[in-house]
Amino acid sequence: MPYVFIGPGVAAGVKVPSMTSTIDLGPTFTALLGTQAPQWTDGRSLVPFLARGSDEDWRTGVISESLSQARPGDPDYETLKPPRFTALRTEQWVYVEYEDGTKELYDRATDPDELDNVLPTADPELVKSLNRQLVALRACAGPTCRVADALPN
């Protein structure tokens, strides 16, 4: 998702090529205001990117989740009820685990639209590695997320 930052300490024309998430907005805004985000915050400040254009010590993956807002009894319940899932997005891979146990894997390098589930033919060690990182990200909080989001994949 694109963001635009303008202000003191923000270099002109900087693009952040790394994995970011909405969880990074809180720590970024607090850093831009000259204070520190609480220790329990899962996200990371984007200020190193905004000031210098890079940060060597950054995450290798980011978690995303889908939790349906539809409620039984709503008129559109059946059509608005997407399956619940948790996914790990890395530079190359999107690994998805659904609540019903279904899993998917997409290679963003060859399939940027994520249409071809390659899990059935994927290297089992790769799948284990992605699963380990997803499990760690699901369980992390605050500073432990810095370890979980930087696991090799």
TrEMBL record:
InterPro entries named in the record: Alkaline_phosphatase_core_sf, SGSH_C
Residue span, N-sulphoglucosamine sulphohydrolase C-terminal domain: 10-138
Pfam families per record: SGSH_C
PANTHER family: N-ACETYLGLUCOSAMINE-6-SULFATASE FAMILY MEMBER, SD21168P
Identification of the protein by name: Unannotated protein
